[in-house]
Design a protein that fits this description.
Radius of gyration: 19 Å
Distance between the termini: 19 Å
Number of strands: 6
Structural class: alpha/beta
Largest sheet: 4 strands, parallel
């Protein structure tokens, strides 16, 4: 049994409000390995502190927590080949690799904020989407409902076609793999109002990492997250791509 933990679960393990034994109790079987990914490290870099010394202390605590819980079991994505490999790598090593490319985080934040909240609201109004109603659909029903609404854009226009069309316009679209498609699905689901994230200065950027956690978790048996919005978006993704990873909260909630 392999496990992938959302970032919020590592926080709870670190502050003691959750334990590994709690996780063992909610999964059906023995835990063979718990994995982390670069998305966890990217989120670790967002940790704040009243001073740089305090911030660095908190970052080191998180890295130590991740290493202790996962025993350095790392899911590594080869972007050139669109493959994911399981390997042993210390979180500190992954952090050093990430921070070598100093412009990367700023670039990702910029890309995540290309569509304004006003534009998203205009899109929902144009398509006649009601957020409350949409949230009541089962994962397998969400795409079907959106496909019907998208007929306003033209015959044959579907949810997945939107994703592929967007990718085709990107200069590197031909090399885009599943992680990019999942990121696109998360963004469009949120734009359409499906389990929409509460907007703040970081919400778009945070959603990008939620999508990456969903991608990496697809290589494990369980994805455990206490973010209900992430869980519901992930279920739509897994239904689309027939991914069998089970999604639960730390309290066994769906």
């Amino acid at each position: 049994m392999t496990i992938y933990l959302d970032n919020n679960i590592f926080i709870y393990l670190e502050n003691g409000s959750l334990s590994i034994s709690d996780i063992e109790n909610i999964v059906d079987g023995n835990i063979e390995a718990i994995f982390f990914s670069s998305a966890h490290i990217e989120e670790t870099l967002e940790i704040k502190g009243s001073t740089e010394q305090e911030r660095q202390k908190r970052v080191n605590e998180r890295l130590n927590t991740i290493e202790k819980i996962t025993k350095s079991n790392y899911l590594y994505q080869d972007l050139l080949q669109n493959n994911v490999f399981k390997k042993i790598e210390k979180p500190t090593t992954v952090l050093n690799t990430i921070t070598e490319v100093t412009f990367a985080q700023s670039a990702m934040k910029g890309l995540a904020n290309l569509i304004t909240e006003e534009q998203k609201e205009q899109t929902r109004n144009f398509l006649g989407l009601e957020t409350t109603r949409l949230n009541n659909y089962k994962p397998e029903e969400v795409v079907e409902h959106l496909n019907k609404k998208l007929t306003h854009l033209g015959e044959g226009y579907t949810f997945l076609r939107m994703i592929e069309l967007g990718i085709s316009y990107h200069p590197d679209g031909k090399s885009f793999g599943l992680s990019n498609r999942i990121a696109g699905i998360f963004e469009i689901l949120d734009m359409f109002g499906y389990w929409k994230d509460k907007y703040n200065a970081k919400s778009n950027y945070a959603r990008l990492w939620d999508s990456y956690h969903t991608f990496f978790a697809s290589f494990c048996d369980y994805f455990i997250s206490d973010d209900r919005r992430t869980r519901n978006k992930s279920r739509v993704v897994y239904d689309i791509y027939n991914i069998k990873t089970e999604i639960i909260s730390s309290k066994s909630e769906e």
